[in-house]
Each structure stands twice: as structure tokens, then as C-alpha cells.
Amino acid sequence: MRSSLAPAACLVSALAVAPALAEPPRISLVFGLDRMTVAAEDIRSVRRVDGQGQGAALVIRLAGRLDPVMSALTEAHVGETGELLICNELAVRPYLDAQIREAMFVISDTDIARIDRLQAMLTGPRCADRPGS
């Protein structure tokens, strides 16, 4: 699955944004060897937008301190396809056509059940509690 990332993303070559966790990071954005990881406490909001029978989207805003990380990662990987993982599960393979300066993601899909699952994984107390695990 290939899609564009709307205002969203982040960078980390050897920079781990999240502290060492017993469970996987809540969100990871990966371009080759560069990775940005985000712990649950760095997710500021997850807003769902329903599209009148045409699917739905999740607008995910991260802590402002991650804006420079996102900007650096995306600047280094314009023109590349990465992987956006939620609880180590592939959510989307975004194509990056421009640098993203704000630490936010927009994930859209016509599969409402998939959006429901991703939303539960993002807002639940732990990755281990995700639906279907």
C-alpha cells in the first residue's frame, strides 16, 4: 500500500525519541536505517474524521518537541517511501513528497474497521492490549 503522508512524520538516525520501553513504541516512522519512535505519552491527540460513507481518517498530533525531529527526518528522505508502524504493525507505506515540519500524521482509509483498529491501538493503554492480539 502506497500513500502520501499529509502533514506528518519524524526523523531519527540514531536518535531514539522514546526511552527504552518494555513494549514496542506506539508509533515508528522508518526510512531505511533512520527511524523516529514515539512513546504513548508523546501522542498529544488522535482525532477521527469520518467521511460520510467514504471512509475515515485519523489525525495524529505529537508533542511539539518532536517537530524538529520530524522536520530533520523528512528533509533527509524527500522522494522516498517509508513505513509508518503503530505498535510495530505496518499501518501505511507513505511516499514523502515534501519535508514535514510538524510532528503529525494523517492516516486515511476506506476500510472503517481498519481505522477503528488503528485508533484503538493509538489510544489504548498498551500496545499489548491492541484489538486482535
UniProtKB/TrEMBL annotation:
Indicate the secretion signal residues. 1-22
Keywords of the record: Signal
Q: Which branch of life, at top level? A: Bacteria
| Entry protein name | Preprotein translocase subunit SecD
